[in-house]
Write a structure and sequence with these properties.
- The complex is a heterodimer of chains A (about 120) and B (about 400).
- Chain A is mainly alpha-helical and about 120 residues long.
- Chain A is built from five helices and no strands.
- Chain A has two domains: about 1-40; about 60-120, no CATH class.
- In chain A, helix 3 (about 60-80) crosses helix 5 (about 110-120) and helix 4 (about 90-105) runs antiparallel to helix 5 (about 110-120).
- With about 400 residues, chain B is α+β, with helices and mostly antiparallel strands.
- Chain B folds into two domains: about 1-70; about 85-395, Porin (Beta Barrel), CATH 2.40.160.10.
- In chain B, the strands form two sheets. Chain B has a 16-stranded antiparallel beta barrel.
- Chain B starts with a helix and ends in a 7-residue tail after the last strand.
- The chains are: A mainly alpha (about 120), B alpha+beta (about 400).
- Chains A and B meet through helix 1, helix 3, helix 4 and helix 5 of A and helix 2, strand 6, helix 3, strand 8 and strand 9 of B.
């Protein structure tokens, strides 16, 4: 019986040895990540931007443009596509008038209107 | 207690009566100790993992948000430089209806003029000229007369991002069909819903002032509103009733679903009230529209439900079928206690099925078949075939100079 009890205690001890250091290591890892993140936070915006700009060549700008186009497409479908099909390409100044008309008609916000106009004139 | 410890320790549990008290106490203490030791660690681990995940998510969200805001700022700057130009547009349609075996020819022209002024002003107007030509018994050919209507002629002032003030003649914002779906190049079926004249009257317009706009009450919840006052006008084609009303809707961009309600109080005659509800859903995964309206007033009540599906995701003949749209609509109308001349005079049910073919986004062939069920000989088939076209021209240089 004593042997069984000792074996059980040893098993618990071994489990504790395995679990507790793992937990501590996980906590340390998280703390380091948090520290890294907090180190990034106070960095000057200009410095971060310039580093990002230096690291981002032309393809990154293209990605931004694609993202904006997707955002414009989404907002078009959310506002204009609720009633009608997407029109074919119109001249930019004409599209600006049509969008203003639809801003009144479809109660589109100013931000949505400009993003949609950007999307429809690219 | 003994039974519990025996169960928890399993094979380690000896016969309780002969077990030393210290050992029994140990058997109870060890699990409690294990729990006491491990629980805080496990809890801390889960908390730190959740915290790490939330921090990572927050960082990525913040970065994505700042990127989007920067892109939007760039778009705003770009669009600021585009000065709008006056636009002339028109909706044109030529429909042939067969109602109960009688053919009706229905040409329609609906010119639209848009004149932007400065950054915040817009003059807009739309008129409708249509003829309903039908054969006259005993005579040759088709006869009809030209109907004219000023749908709207309004001056808009964009106060801010969430409010626009309108004065003049405007489309009555009751429900969604009259304002959003009425133009011949937009509507999926060329026949009007039976309940359309409820609260919009024969002209569908009011003459007075209106305040409207939209805003976000949460990141994924948009609200749109319109409130108006109209005065009495008996001069055709500018006729309107003296009334006030409002419409509000909530739109969820995620599921692309909108629900809303309308209210109108008549300030003349019987001073009656009218109300309505509307619903629209366009799932983003499939080219499918589901729209519905309900309206009730002293003149009558009823509803329509319409669904439309563009076959652009068909598994076969996709190149051809992507131009095809199939439409179905079901509607019912019930006569009210104060019958109105522009509404059906008897309870009426109707279903319609249509097929539209889009040559382009602004040019299409439309067709439909409907069956109307009404007492007093009102049962009939309604066939329609026609074409619709939308014209749009800049008045001036449309391109950026």
């Amino acid at each position: 019986m004593k042997t069984r009890l000792l074996a059980f205690a040893a098993f618990i001890l071994a489990a504790g040895v395995l679990v507790v250091p793992g937990t501590i290591r996980a906590q340390q890892g998280t703390g380091q990540e948090t520290k890294v993140a907090s180190n990034n936070d106070p960095a000057p915006a200009g410095a971060t931007t310039s580093r990002a700009a230096a690291a981002q060549p032309a393809p990154a700008k293209q990605e931004d443009e694609d993202a904006l186009r997707l955002e414009g497409q989404k907002r078009f479908h959310d506002n204009c596509g609720r009633c009608h099909q997407a029109p074919h390409k119109l001249p930019p100044r004409m599209m600006a008038t049509a969008i203003r008309h639809m801003r009144v008609r479809a109660t589109i916000t100013d931000e949505d209107m400009r993003v949609i106009l950007h999307y429809m004139t690219q | 207690m003994l039974e519990l410890s025996s169960i928890s320790l399993g094979p380690l549990a000896p016969a309780g009566r002969h077990t030393p008290r210290a050992v029994r106490a140990l058997r109870l203490l060890i699990p409690a100790l294990i729990t006491f030791l491990l629980a805080p660690n496990l809890l801390a681990q889960s908390q730190t993992e959740m915290q790490a995940q939330s921090e990572t998510q927050a960082q990525s969200d913040t970065q994505a948000q700042s990127d989007t805001e920067a892109q939007i700022d760039a778009a705003l700057a770009d669009s600021q430089s585009i000065s709008p130009v006056p636009v002339f547009s028109a909706g044109l349609a030529y429909n042939t209806f067969f109602q109960g075996g009688t053919p009706n020819l229905h040409p329609l022209v609906s010119p639209v003029v848009l004149i932007p002024l400065g950054q915040n002003w817009l003059i807009e107007s739309r008129d409708t000229f249509e003829i309903n030509m039908a054969p006259v018994p005993g005579e040759n050919g088709y006869k009809g007369y030209l109907q004219k209507e000023v749908d709207y002629l309004q001056l808009d002032y964009i106060v801010n991002s969430h409010m626009t003030v309108t004065v003049g003649r405007f489309l009555t914002p009751f429900g969604i069909f009259n304002e959003r779906l009425y133009p011949v190049w937009i509507r999926n079926l060329q026949t009007d819903p039976l309940i359309l004249p409820i609260s919009t009257g024969p002209s569908g317009a009011g003459t007075g002032a209106m305040v409207r706009g939209g805003f976000n009450i949460a990141p994924k919840v948009e609200v749109n509103y319109a409130t108006y006052f109209s005065t009495l006008s008996t001069d055709t084609p500018l006729d309107s009733e003296r009334e006030l009303g409002a419409r509000a809707g909530i739109y969820l961009p995620g599921p692309r679903l909108e629900v809303g309600g309308s209210y109108q109080h008549l300030l003349q005659d019987d001073h009656s009230n009218a109300f309505g509800f509307h619903f629209a859903w366009q799932p983003s995964a499939i080219p499918f529209d589901l729209r519905a309206e309900y309206a009730r007033s002293d003149n009558g009540s009823g509803y329509w439900v319409e669904s439309a599906y563009r076959l652009s995701q068909a598994p076969v003949w996709r190149h051809e079928l992507r131009h095809v749209q199939v439409v179905g609509r079901m509607q019912q109308f019930y006569v009210g206690k104060v019958p109105n001349g522009v509404l059906p005079t008897v309870n009426t049910n109707m279903f319609e099925f249509g097929v539209n073919y889009y040559f382009r986004d602004d040019f299409r062939l439309v067709s439909s078949y409907g069956r109307q069920f009404a007492p007093q000989g009102g049962n009939m088939n309604v066939w329609n075939v026609g074409v619709t076209y939308r014209l749009a021209l800049p008045v001036g240089h449309g391109d950026i100079q």
